[in-house]
Specification:
Length: 424
């Protein structure tokens, strides 16, 4: 007698075993095969020796099989691996439904027993056999797990390997929450404690990348066949990235990459509502001087290029946690957080000096200036009143400056001799 899914006794010849039996090394290279291999799969016995067992598996079954081989060394005490549904290629090109179990049977020696399920699957189609359901679960696109009452993994399907790169054998007995990203583990554990129906969290692939899963949990502890939790986890990483990209597009000025008008106003309103001391917020309203001359002289492409350059220079003048947006045209706004009393004046001077440096476009240099108005939240309780006050302060600055002090604002007839417009 022999266990069809374990090592055959040494007194029994491999050819006496009715199931396909293979002896491989740790990476699946076949050293022995029995007669059932030829009878079931149509390849001569001699053709099996030296080839790799992975060569005859369906491409969709390779990842779980590789993971199983990788974890085989962890199975101490000669324990057998889990039954794994696979599809094996027949010599005629068809795919046979099979199940395989392996056992480490010596140093760098693995015994694989493969059972052809073709007849059983044909019966399953008529009678709804459980093996058909097992195969469907195994090949499902989403991760399916059963958890013990303490939320440790009892079983899983092959999608765990395809999506997270993890071997189901190694995952057994580990806490489901431990598969999540470190910052989400407490959250996942708490949702399981609450028997939550559905939630989203970041999980970690074995290569270190992040995968966003939508997790559905059913409490089946009262079901005698389950006695635990059923978890279905769908990979929504691409969907999340698409949502983020669409949100970014909706919030971003396409030309400069800064926040657009609506997104900027929404962010500042949120800041005013959430900040205990809104008086620490200050807004700078910046309007370019001489920008129209750039458009008239070099065209709108040059104007767009300059606006993009202005945005970059302004970003380098503020802190990462300050807000910077473009209201439209050549109007930019900055909100400074936790600024000192003289902070707005210091930042305004930094922005002014940065923008007044020459710009280059297609071998020509151009200059613009900027008028900046400042308002602080302590004097204006709403974002609308803050922007209006900063806008008025900006126009006072603009009116107080003489025309000759505005770089790039000379008449078109004067530009011909203006060195700021000369070819580089």
């Amino acid at each position: 007698m022999t266990d069809a899914f374990g090592d055959p006794p040494t007194s029994i010849d491999l050819d006496d075993i009715p199931d396909i039996c293979l002896i491989t090394d740790g990476i699946g290279t076949i050293s022995r095969a029995n007669r059932a291999c030829a009878e079931a799969l149509g390849y001569p016995v001699d053709d099996w020796v030296g080839r790799n067992v992975l060569d005859v598996l369906h491409p969709d079954d390779l990842e779980p099989a590789i993971a199983a081989f990788t974890s085989m060394g962890d199975r101490t005490g000669g324990g057998s691996g889990l039954l794994m549904p696979v599809r094996v290629r027949h010599a005629n090109g068809s795919w046979l439904p099979c199940e395989v179990r392996g056992r480490v049977s010596g140093e760098d020696r693995i015994t694989l027993v493969v059972r052809d399920l073709t007849d059983r699957h044909a019966l399953s189609l008529a009678q709804g056999d459980a093996d058909l359901l097992r195969a469907l679960v195994h090949h499902a696109s989403s991760i399916l797990l059963t958890l013990e009452a303490d939320h440790t993994v009892r079983s899983t399907n092959a999608a765990l390997t395809r999506i997270l790169g993890r071997d189901g054998y190694r995952t057994q007995g580990t806490a489901f929450a431990s598969l999540a990203a470190p910052e989400d583990r407490t959250f996942v554990a708490s949702r399981l404690d609450e028997d939550a129906g559905r939630f989203e969290a970041d999980f970690v692939h074995v290569d270190g990348s992040r995968v966003v899963l939508e997790v559905s949990v059913q409490d089946l502890r009262s079901d005698p066949l389950v006695g635990g939790y059923l978890v279905n986890a769908v990979d929504i990483t691409d969907l999340r990235e698409t949502q983020i990209a669409l949100r970014r597009m909706a919030d971003t000025d396409h030309l400069t990459g800064l926040l657009n008008r609506q997104a900027f106003l929404d962010r500042v309103r949120t800041m005013l509502d959430a900040t205990d001391d809104a008086g620490d917020l200050a807004i700078l309203f910046c309007d370019l001087d001489g920008f129209k001359s750039i458009n008239d002289e070099l065209g709108h492409a040059a104007g767009d290029h300059l606006l993009s350059e202005v945005a970059g220079r302004m970003q380098r003048c503020v802190h990462a946690d300050d807000l910077l947006g473009r209201l439209g045209g050549d109007e930019f706004v900055v909100v400074l957080r936790d600024t000192a009393k003289n902070g707005p004046a210091v930042v305004a001077d930094r922005i002014r000096r940065a923008i007044e440096e020459p710009f280059s476009y297609q071998g020509r240099a151009a200059r613009v200036g900027v008028s900046i108005g400042v308002a602080v939240a302590s004097d204006h309780p709403t974002i609308t009143s803050m922007i209006a006050a900063a806008d008025e302060a900006m126009y006072q600055v603009k009116r107080s400056r003489s025309r000759r002090d505005v770089p790039g604002a000379r008449r078109a007839t004067e530009r011909r001799t203006d060195p700021a417009w000369a070819p580089r």
